[in-house]
Amino acid sequence: MPVTSANAFPAAVQGSNVETTSNVTLVQQYQSKKQVAAKYKRTKVRFVTDQAPGTVIVDTNNKYLYYVEGNNKATRYGIGVGRDGFGWSGVVKVGRKAEWPSWTPPAEMRQREAKKGRILPVVQPGGEDNPLGARALYLFKGGRDTIFRIHGTNQPWTIGQNMSSGCIRMMNKDVEHLYARADVGTKVVVVGPGNRQGAVDYNDRGVDFFGNLFGFGG
Question: Could you name the Gene Ontology cellular component terms for this entry (predicted)?
Fold first, then answer.
């Protein structure tokens, strides 16, 4: 594990009775035989870092997101990250959060996809077939929305891959777990291309057997 030193889709629809706009993605999900690799399953790890407990560290190179617990421990989640040309790095904060968020693709994304023959909606309501999944944490810099998010996905087989337009995607059950712990104001360190995150030390020392056995911090 290396030692190193950070703009996508607002609004929210909350509730247990969620209407979906399409069953296409759900059918694809259920029929897909691809499984998330075991190494990307949520687990507790021994983790040494100079970052304070409650910090989120996103290692885009190794496709892991860490929630720092303190006492040399962290919860590690598998993630999907930006494809070539869409990677980024920096230090941001969670500016707001949403359950079952709606998706508002940026105009440049709609234009880009239209050239490929794919027409994106101006706004897609939240729901099980929404690309942002069950939860979204909106990342801000200097009080302004970066348009990047940490969010769920209705395509869990993309975890561990470079697939997004810069957002950090997680399995829905994992983003729900993180959402309950990372409050607005949480520091998020994204380690990726450009090294704009500055000097940040972290060392994943592997699975914390006893932590997983007895649990800690949720």
Answer: extracellular region
88 is a domain residue: yes
Domain housing 141: 40-193
Distance CA 93, CA 145 (A): 10
Q: What is the pLDDT of residues 54-101, one digit of tens each?
A: 999 999 999 999 999 999 999 999 999 988 778 999 999 999 999 999
The residues annotated with a catalytic role in the active site are: 151, 167
The maximal CA–CA distance of the chain, rounded, in angstroms, is 52
* 210 occurs within a structural domain: no
pTM of the model: 0.79
Angle at 7 between CA 5 and CA 12, to 5 degrees: 120
- Whether residue 212 is contained in a domain is answered as no
69, 80, 159, 204, 207 from 60: Cα distances, Å: 20, 8, 12, 14, 19
Residue 124, token pair as written in the block: 């897609």
Question: What is the tens place of the pLDDT at every residue in 105-155?
Answer: 777 888 888 888 887 776 777 678 888 999 999 999 999 999 999 999 989
Name the β-bridge partners of 66.
57, 76
Count Cβ atoms below 10 Å from residue 185 Cβ, excluding itself: 10
